[in-house]
Design brief:
alpha+beta; about 350 residues; about 30% helix; about 20% strand; single chain
């Protein structure tokens, strides 16, 4: 599947009946795991404490189960933190990033409350990138996600003018939108020429499935009326943009469009989709080494404590490359599991 920069042709889009692709992927992974009868799942069971020895070796967890009450799990090899970050915890977001971003709508899970930080504190981890997060476009009221659709047309503000360089990644756009607009709201304007693109079609399906607004009209003026922006200003904006693209002067616009091949918006009907800048996930947490071991304040491994995915810190900063978060979660999760398994075998062998 050909994506816009920085995806281009390096990305692998997960295919299958479930949407989005992440749901399909996790379902397939769970199906494989459930084939092993030795692996047990505990649902509705919340870890509230990491167990430790006096020398700060992690030996298990204490949890609360809705059906069993208090439950204690002892770990031979160690404990792997795969809790994600703290983007749903407004108190922590304000603490580490400031109140300016705490009101951004959530794109990610509403349940990730910072267990990667709060549970690991007794081990004195080396926390990194606590002020960093992944942002992205979202329709706040319905959670419809346009993601890279922002690179397939023109981004227009509520005043009818273009407001940002369409070559920016959707992460950059989402982070800048609350800063450059008073109400954190803009529109993606596309034409019918891009509707056959798989990426565009998928994003439009997301909006329609969530019953999010998709405005459509045969003229700029009619589209503007549906969007609630000034028809005269919007029409002038679109005509000026198209003229600049045709003459090869898109980069000289204000703001410029520096895409290698800026897209014209000339084929009716025209469509507009509203979106805001949202927060997907935080990039902060304990630093790990190549084995997935959590490092303490002296940057030495904490025995028996591992982390992977967005529970860790120090891997991402500001932006990210398409697919890299998922890939990093799989790679470091696997390394951590392998090291914990080897650790468990060594303990068993020592006792024998």
């Amino acid at each position: 599947v050909k994506e816009v920069w920085p995806g281009l042709v390096r990305g692998h889009v997960v295919d299958g009946p479930m949407k989005p692709g992440g749901a399909q992927l996790i379902t397939q992974l769970l199906e494989q795991v459930k084939k092993n009868p030795k692996i047990k799942f505990f649902t509705n069971t919340k870890v509230i404490e990491l167990l430790k020895t006096p020398t700060l070796e992690c030996t298990g967890v204490r949890a609360v189960s809705k059906t069993e009450g208090e439950v204690v799990f002892h770990a031979k090899g160690g404990v792997l933190m795969a809790t994600g970050g703290f983007h749903a915890n407004k108190e922590m977001v304000c603490k580490y990033m400031g109140g300016g971003v705490a009101w951004m709508p959530l794109r990610g899970s509403p349940y990730l409350m910072g267990e990667n930080v709060e549970l690991t504190r007794p081990f004195f981890p080396y926390y990194m990138n606590m002020d960093q997060f992944h942002g992205g476009p979202i329709h706040a009221q319905t959670q419809a996600n346009p993601s890279t659709l922002v690179n397939y047309g023109v981004i227009v503000g509520t005043n009818g003018d273009r407001i940002i360089n369409e070559a920016k990644t959707y992460v950059e756009m989402a982070k800048e939108l609350p800063v450059i607009t008073r109400n954190n709201l803009a529109y993606i304007v596309i034409d019918s020429a891009v509707l056959e693109n798989d990426t565009v079609a998928t994003r439009l399906d997301r909006y329609r499935a969530k019953k999010a607004p998709v405005y459509q009209a045969d003229t700029y003026a009619e589209l503007a009326k549906q969007m609630g922006v000034d028809p005269e200003v919007f029409t002038k904006t679109m005509e000026g943009y198209n003229e600049a693209v045709k003459s090869g002067k898109a980069a000289a616009l204000t703001p410029g469009n520096t895409l290698k091949e800026p897209r014209l918006v000339v084929k009716a009907p025209f469509l507009a989709l509203p979106f805001s800048g949202g927060m997907t996930a935080t990039f902060g947490g304990p630093k790990i080494n190549a084995k997935g071991q959590v490092l303490n304040a002296e940057q030495q491994p904490v025995p028996g404590l591992y982390a992977a995915g967005n529970a860790i810190g120090g891997l991402f900063y500001w932006n990210y490359i398409v697919g890299s978060q998922l890939t990093a979660a799989v790679i470091f999760g696997r390394h951590a599991a392998q090291d914990a398994a080897a650790r468990a075998k060594a303990k068993v062998a020592k006792k024998a």
